[in-house]
């Protein structure tokens, strides 16, 4: 067309511009279609969560504030995550006096963490009852119950926010003095002093900029700040090296003072201070007592110690066996 003079060459830029302008709405329409498809998929996932049956129903009662811990009791508790599935806990009976420490010991899958989940009332047992200070957990509002309990788990979830904001999650209305005291008691003071921005330092998504020991001490600082009468330690030192564990364990020892504490342990060296050890196997309590008595019994607890054969845990188990 250009050679035949039916189309002026000077019009080429204009044609290219008009073609681009004409294609732009088509491109935007295609992008909108992709976004719509993503939104539909997301909506379906949200809907699936929305229609999921609620595993627990809120109770009407508020727990009164207590000092020095609360009494916990499991009475003939049987539980399975799926009513048609296998039983995870069977006929569990134990009592933790106010301010006492109890340790749950056993191989993986024995039901230790399930007991913690039931105390926090993520689920209700199919049989039996769980009480705190004589009140069935099903009678208590979830907010009131969970304000009464502090959890230090093996995996500490941190949000992409500052250190201060992550610690304040435990008690958003805490004063700066309360926050500073929790940081000091969790052995975080020296670490914060080494940071140019201090408490205003961003931790990154899930705390990727921090070490395992630092994340764990933030979890302990949360527990100090919350100041709850019941404390659950779920494998709180399982992923730490020896140096980090020494700092964390010292903070945990202080945290357990004057609190009812449930210690879930794989490293048996963490349970020496427990008032009672519950040894679990296949969802049942098979032995109970203090470390020395259980070792003398020569049962499953002693077998757990004897079978430990690798890593630092071997040294810890050997030290325990000699006590």
TrEMBL record:
Pfam families, per the entry: ABC_tran
Compartment(s): Cell membrane
Any GO molecular function: ATP binding
PROSITE patterns per record: ABC_TRANSPORTER_1, ABC_TRANSPORTER_2
Alphabetical UniProt keywords: ATP-binding, Membrane, Nucleotide-binding, Plasmid, Transmembrane, Transmembrane helix, Transport
Its membrane topology: Multi-pass membrane protein
Residues in ABC transporter domain copies: 72-307
Superkingdom, taxonomy of origin: Bacteria
BP GO annotations: oligopeptide export from mitochondrion
Cellular component terms per the entry's GO annotation: plasma membrane
Recorded family membership: Belongs to the ABC transporter superfamily.
Protein name: ATP-binding cassette domain-containing protein
